[in-house]
């Protein structure tokens, strides 16, 4: 007896990868995610390789993981993949204190984020359009 297997949330031509609790604010991570949305994976990887943002390396790892999932788990063609979705979610926020003058303290918040990348295989007809 056992649990019924959950239905696949993505289409048959899609694969995804999720990176959780990344130590960067969602706003900064979204700037890098915007850079790759809708692009072919080769162009997205090239953009992330030469980006000057610190978090671009983590986004690149997540994109490479999504590509590997598409190839190995879902038998999709790597050459015809595009970044269908790249979205950022808010995670925990560590609260810390910073000593100030006259015996006071200020609050320092250190935010974390989640990143989800979905790659989709597009047909040859869609690429020509």
Automatic annotation (TrEMBL):
Keywords: Ribonucleoprotein, Ribosomal protein, RNA-binding, rRNA-binding. It holds the Pfam family Ribosomal_L22. One of its GO terms (molecular function) is structural constituent of ribosome. CDD domains: Ribosomal_L22. SUPFAM superfamilies: Ribosomal protein L22. Gene3D superfamilies: Ribosomal protein L22/L17. One of its GO terms (cellular component) is cytosolic large ribosomal subunit. One of its GO terms (biological process) is translation. InterPro entries: Ribosomal_uL22, Ribosomal_uL22_bac/chlpt-type, Ribosomal_uL22_bac/org-type, Ribosomal_uL22_CS, Ribosomal_uL22_sf. The globular domain of the protein is located near the polypeptide exit tunnel on the outside of the subunit, while an extended beta-hairpin is found that lines the wall of the exit tunnel in the center of the 70S ribosome. This protein binds specifically to 23S rRNA; its binding is stimulated by other ribosomal proteins, e.g., L4, L17, and L20. It is important during the early stages of 50S assembly. It makes multiple contacts with different domains of the 23S rRNA in the assembled 50S subunit and ribosome. Belongs to the universal ribosomal protein uL22 family. PANTHER family: CHLOROPLAST 50S RIBOSOMAL PROTEIN L22-RELATED (PTHR13501), LARGE RIBOSOMAL SUBUNIT PROTEIN UL22M (PTHR13501:SF8). This is Large ribosomal subunit protein uL22.
């Amino acid at each position: 007896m056992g649990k019924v297997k959950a239905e696949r949330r993505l289409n048959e031509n899609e694969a995804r990868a999720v990176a959780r609790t990344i130590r960067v604010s969602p706003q900064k991570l979204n700037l890098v995610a915007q850079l790759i949305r809708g692009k072919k994976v080769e162009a997205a990887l090239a953009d992330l390789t030469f980006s000057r943002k610190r978090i671009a390396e983590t986004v690149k790892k997540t994109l490479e993981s999504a590509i590997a999932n598409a190839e190995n788990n879902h038998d999709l063609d790597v050459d015809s993949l595009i970044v269908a979705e790249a979205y950022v979610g808010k995670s925990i926020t560590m609260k810390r204190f910073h000593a100030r003058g006259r015996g006071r303290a200020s609050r320092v918040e250190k935010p974390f984020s989640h990143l989800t990348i979905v790659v989709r295989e597009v047909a040859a007809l869609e690429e020509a359009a």
